[in-house]
Amino acid sequence: MWQEGFVRIRTETKRLSIIQIAGEMFMANGFAAVSMAQIAAAVGGSKATLYGYFSTKEDLFAAFVVELGKEHFADLLEGLKTEGGPLDRLTSLGERYLKLALAPDIQRINRMVIAEAERLPHIGRLFFDNGPGRVIGVIKSHIAELKLPNGVFADDDEAANVLKALLDAGLQEPRQWCVAGALTAEERRSAAEKAARRFLLLARSDPAPLA
After folding, report:
1. Do 55 and 48 touch, CB atoms closer than 8 A?
2. Which pLDDT tens digit goes with each residue over 135-172?
3. What's 26's domain CATH number?
4. What's the Cα-to-Cα distance from 172 to each of 34, 185, 194, 201, 209, rounded to whole Å?
5. Does residue 87 form part of some domain?
């Protein structure tokens, strides 16, 4: 029995090692430019061994996307304020989000998945479910905990997407297309606080029709 457990651990360790090495190659060269033969050579085994873990390069890339999502989702939650007033809590959330969303490796994987999503829609779905979809879930749960007035929002889903849009505004696209550099910690905090203040103003607005 202990031998079976040891084999499973060793197999999973090897699998994660393959994902890490392949992921580094994908990030450095792009998905299309990396072959299974190159990955096998970098891993240090035969192609047959590699195919024993992943039947296609697409499957390996999908596994990399899932593991990357797990890693960065943990980063989003680390150090997040769960006490204090709405402005402090939303600013803390915004800072963590911007640090994650604007990180160079996240921007690179975004571009890579966008390039492949039309041809491989299941990878686009995996990336969304393990990345943006989970982030929206965190934002939604934090907004729900604050018990804010309904304001102009139909529900917490809409509120979460509005807050994310306010955080992204003017920051996401310039970095997506490599025309702006990284933000400093001070710039992230300032941007997060500005977005949080605007969001709270909307949450307290009169939802009556304009006409």
Report:
1. no
2. 999 999 999 998 888 778 889 999 999 999 999 999 99
3. 1.10.10.60
4. 27, 16, 15, 22, 31
5. yes
